[in-house]
Specification:
Length: 458
């Protein structure tokens, strides 16, 4: 029987769309696909003004097109009006399908967004897409994000929602609970938490399928006791800081997809604030940009997040839920063999990009840098990158090309001066590492059979 899970993303249950008050509506400047079931329901709408709009603007996609989620999920597409807004909106900015036919007639994309709905082991979970401004505010700014201990301590049903028998299934919840607990462990600077998470993911990758039932609990136990004892700190402190390489990759990642024709105004504002914060101009050198990057981090970025440590933690927590870290979306959908190290590299790349953008933006706003600027940056960047299927593969290729996909390379993306990174204790809902270990019936000792993390960081 799989262990009972600790954490559930309860915060998604509290989301409420603010409709026409939204500053970056999902009903404009976006490709909206219509699934086959919704398309067939829309064909049953009685004759009238709404049906006329549906017939003119809900159009079948080409069966030969390379569509996200397959042809059933993208059976048709809403043709946007000349002003890039959905033609099915009322003059008040509300959805006419929802008003006149009810939620049951909405395309799946419209009915669920910004909720990222997925099933693991037969359990439905919902994270939030931070490309929605209201979702970004709700996730990032809540100092007590509802990621509570599960009130229902039931064990998830096994072998449900996944093709065939997958040996990793019983270990999904304990592994993810460990990742979430580690991210919230403010006894360590945030870069160290992510570095340890990467080492943990690589150790998982090295376990043979036949040894999972023995080795996964042993690995959880070993990392738990080592983190609690502080035995890993000297090795991590010796790892190098390299702001130039960090900025170089941030610039590469930020430049991805910039040649697309559908750049949105909010993302352009974000990039302009980022580049202006670094003093970008024809007279600048990469060395001067790096110096401004370091200054922006030390003077504006780090002091702000010292006062608000929950913001970056909440960003990571939501990403872990949304991406089914460290197993990945494909594993959750069809039982594909997980690559924990790749998922870890992608998590760190996404975090490094967002942190780098925020450093530049803080350098632009300086003493007035605020939570509103954080929400604007994260939301605009998420809307630009998270919904392009080729971004993550391109980001991973850039890591490999620059030799930054190994632990030493990834720490370059994560580490700045950490003297200002140590944070006050997390809220009391955070279980201790020892409590986590006990909840999983893992012995609190480091078995000699487990290769120990700091033995090698290559």
């Amino acid at each position: 029987m799989p262990p009972a899970r600790l954490f559930k993303p309860r915060y998604s249950e509290n989301f409420r769309c603010i409709g026409p008050a939204c500053e970056d509506s999902c009903c404009e400047q976006w490709t909206v696909y219509v699934d086959q079931s919704a398309f067939e329901k829309l064909q049953s709408v009685p004759a009238g003004p709404l049906r006329t709009l549906i017939d003119a603007n809900v159009l079948r996609t080409s069966p030969e097109a390379d569509l996200p989620g397959g042809t059933a999920s993208a059976f048709a597409q809403i043709r946007m009006a000349d002003d890039a807004k959905c033609p099915l909106l009322s003059t008040e900015g509300l959805c006419r399908i929802h008003q006149e036919q009810g939620e049951s007639h909405l395309p799946h994309m419209c009915a669920t967004y910004p909720r990222a709905v997925y099933s693991v082991q037969g359990e439905i979970e919902k994270a939030l897409a931070l490309s929605c401004p209201e979702a970004a505010r709700q996730v990032l700014l809540d100092p007590h994000l509802p990621v509570s201990l599960a009130e229902d301590r039931e064990s998830p049903a096994s072998n449900v929602g996944m093709s065939g028998s997958n040996p990793w299934q019983p270990h999904f919840w304990p592994v993810r609970d460990f990742a979430l607990t580690l991210v919230r462990n403010r006894a360590l600077p945030l870069w160290q938490r992510l570095f340890l998470l990467d080492l943990f993911s690589r150790r998982l990758d090295a376990i043979a399928p036949g040894d999972l039932d023995q080795q996964v609990p042993a690995l959880l136990s070993g990392f738990t006791i080592a983190i609690h004892s502080g035995s890993l700190l000297p090795g991590m402190q010796a790892l190098a800081v390299d702001h130039a390489k960090q900025l170089d990759l941030v610039l590469r990642l930020a430049g991805m997809l910039l040649k697309r024709s559908n750049l949105r105004p909010r993302f352009i504002e974000c990039i302009q604030a980022f580049t202006n914060g670094l003093g970008d101009g024809p007279a600048n050198t990469f060395e001067s940009l790096t110096a401004r990057y370091e200054e922006a981090h030390d003077r504006y970025f780090a002091p702000f997040f010292l006062r608000h440590p929950h913001i970056l933690e909440n960003y990571l927590i939501n990403t872990i839920f949304r991406c089914r870290f460290p197993f990945g979306s494909e594993w959750a959908r069809n039982g594909a063999v997980p690559s924990m190290s790749r998922e870890s590299a992608l998590l760190i790349a996404q975090f490094a990009l967002m942190k780098g953008l925020l450093i530049g933006v803080s350098g632009f706003h300086r003493e007035t840098f605020s939570a509103d600027h954080v929400v604007h940056t994260v939301q605009a960047a998420s809307k630009h990158f998270d919904h392009h299927l080729d971004f993550l593969s391109g980001a991973h290729a850039s890591l490999v090309e620059k030799g930054l996909d190994g632990p030493k390379g990834l720490v370059i993306l994560l580490r700045n001066e950490e003297s200002v990174e140590l944070q006050p204790a997390a809220p009391s809902l955070q279980p201790s590492m020892h409590a986590l270990s006990r909840s999983q019936d893992v012995p609190l000792k480091a078995p000699s059979s487990v290769a120990w993390p700091m033995a090698s960081v290559e």
